[in-house]
TrEMBL record:
Domain tRNA (adenine(58)-N(1))-methyltransferase catalytic subunit TRM61 C-terminal: 58-228
CDD domains: AdoMet_MTases (cd02440)
Annotated binding of S-adenosyl-L-methionine, by residue: D127, D155, D171
Residue ranges crossing the lipid bilayer per the database entry: none
PANTHER family per record: TRNA (ADENINE(58)-N(1))-METHYLTRANSFERASE, TRNA (ADENINE(58)-N(1))-METHYLTRANSFERASE, MITOCHONDRIAL
UniProt keyword S-adenosyl-L-methionine present: yes
One GO cellular component, as annotated: tRNA (m1A) methyltransferase complex
Name listed for the protein in its UniProt record: tRNA (Adenine-N1)-methyltransferase
Annotated GO biological process: tRNA methylation
Key words, A-Z: Methyltransferase, S-adenosyl-L-methionine, Transferase, tRNA processing
Length: 253
């Protein structure tokens, strides 16, 4: 299938130079490796190679959730892809799901959730900060995912709106103060996930979940990439270590 105006494309030059843009006639992608004219991309196929104005190779790829962060302007510290991937896996988010998100930030997790729930699902993204909501909406609009998200300016601790969610994900400083309203909003057996930077927050959250949730677990993700070379394969000298803790539990009645 040929690339056409309106398509969202990942321009991959190398692992440090990945750019997501929506194809528009007359538009130009400018990089330190040269420029690429969108007019030269229209009509090509995904997976094809194109050259920048300076002769560097770039590949035309379909963006995946792991790429979304590179397209976003950040206003807050984001949850890393390694943590998001485990969270959405534990949450069981799939096509048609309805998910409640408390604490939107830049919209990174929101975008991944929106991608997974598909056209038939919905993400209710709740944040008390208007500036963060605005930036998240801009980022989701760039990715073409706005129609899958309902943005709401509200303190998640005071949530009293939609009910019967398939999962809830929290990225707020004090999730223990939201647990009861989240419990009331979830379908029976549905999971709650909370991302927390400190162990003290974890202890308070787990204590607040007891009696309302079961199968409670706490996780930390550590990811190490490998450099594969002939007779010289070894771990990368750089890795993303501790970034936070993930708390998981299932609603009981």
């Amino acid at each position: 299938m040929s690339i056409k105006p309106g398509d969202l494309i990942l321009f991959y030059i190398d692992s440090k130079r990945k750019f997501i843009q929506r194809i528009e006639p007359g538009k130009i992608l400018g990089t330190d490796r040269g420029v690429i004219r969108h007019d030269d991309v229209i009509g090509r196929r995904l997976g094809e190679q194109i050259s920048t104005s300076r002769g560097f190779k770039a590949y035309l790829l379909k963006p995946l959730p792991v790429d979304f962060l590179s397209a976003m302007r950040r206003v807050t510290q984001v949850i890393y892809p390694k943590d998001v991937s485990l969270m959405v896996y534990l949450a069981g988010v799939s096509e048609g799901a309805k998910v409640l998100e408390g604490g939107v930030g830049t919209g990174h997790v929101t975008a991944v959730l929106a991608y997974l729930v598909g056209e038939k699902g919905r993400v209710f993204a709740v944040d008390v900060d208007e500036a963060k909501l605005k930036k998240a909406m801009e980022n989701l609009d760039k990715l073409g995912l706005m129609n899958r998200v309902v943005f709401i300016r509200k303190d998640i601790r005071e949530w009293s709106g939609e009910r019967d969610f398939d999962a809830a994900i929290l990225d707020v400083p004090d999730p223990w103060n939201s647990i009861r309203v989240i419990h009331e909003s979830l379908k029976p057996s549905s999971p709650l996930l909370a991302f927390l930077p400190t162990i003290n927050q974890v202890e308070k959250t787990v204590a607040g979940m007891k009696g309302l949730f079961t199968d409670i677990h706490v996780y930390e993700t550590l990811v190490r990439e490998y450099l594969v070379l002939q007779d010289g394969t070894r771990p990368s000298p750089r890795m993303i270590g501790h970034t936070g803790f993930i708390v998981f539990g299932r609603k009981i009645i």
